[in-house]
Amino acid sequence: MAGRHYLTKPEINALYFATYKMERPRGWDGPLPVGRYWRAALVVFFNYGVDTGTVWPSTPAHEPILWRHVIWDRQSPDRQAKEQSPWGWLFYRRVKTGKAFYRPMNRVVHAHLRGLMPDDPRPDAPVFLGGGARPNARFQLLCGLAGIKPRFDVETGKEEPWELKDLRKTCATYHDEHVPESSVEILGHSVGGITYRHYAHRAPLAFRAIMTLPQPSAFSTILRGNDGECPCCRRRFADAA
After folding, report:
1. Is residue 58 classed exposed, middle or buried when 0-12, 13-18 and 19+ CB atoms within 10 A define those classes?
2. What are 162-198's pLDDT values in tens digits?
3. Which of 17, 85, 103, 162 sits at a 20 to 30 Å CA gap from 112?
4. What's 9-165+215-222's CATH class?
5. Are 234 and 32 in contact (CB under 8 A)?
């Protein structure tokens, strides 16, 4: 599709399984294979449309998601929230505005973050490792492993590499397809549209959208006990340990 600025679900599935092919970065001393962090990051990008710096900070000004930001209780830390999530909650801030969000974890997000959690996580330790100094460069290598072609820019007439910010657009696309206009609240956009102002309570809209969002099929392999297996032949991937 000419001018498409979001990734399709088949492409996201390809990215997810391509993480098993990611090479160990030079000097890597992480407790888990780097691909496992990237799989969880893809899940978080897809569901919440977070900024790249919220996952992998590239400047001291970025506040990444830390283990103290992952809340496993049903009740939200936000006292104004009436909803309860059986899978817990996630806190993060937007990089550009500093706006704080308390978002419910759905089953897929919960499973992937549980899969990253150390036995005794330090509260101020980052949840996501493996982004390196240039996360976008690593993402473009992942796109190559997944066989995803560069996107076409209709304005310039040139092909351009996919960037992590395109996952934010992907999140918006699928949330709006599922629950119209929900992406405005989920992504934290400032709007003044008449239609959107008709929603008296925006947080419940975001809650419903996140908890019911149809997921790419690859994300659910961890729930079925098939995590680490090729979907075609069921052979174990190299980094599936």
Report:
1. middle
2. 999 999 999 999 999 999 989 999 998 655 544 444 4
3. 162
4. mainly alpha
5. no
pTM value is 0.90
Q: Report the interhelical angle of 9-18 vs 135-146 (nearest 10°).
A: 100
From the CA atom positions of the chain, what is the Rg in Å?
A: 18
What are 126's strand-pairing partners? Answer: 66
Instruction: Report how far residue 229's alpha carbon sits from residue 10's, in angstroms, rounded to the nearest whole number.
Output: 17
Domain ranges of the chain: 9-165+215-222
Q: What percent of the chain has pLDDT over 70?
A: 86
C-alpha to C-alpha distance for 227 and 84, rounded to whole angstroms: 28
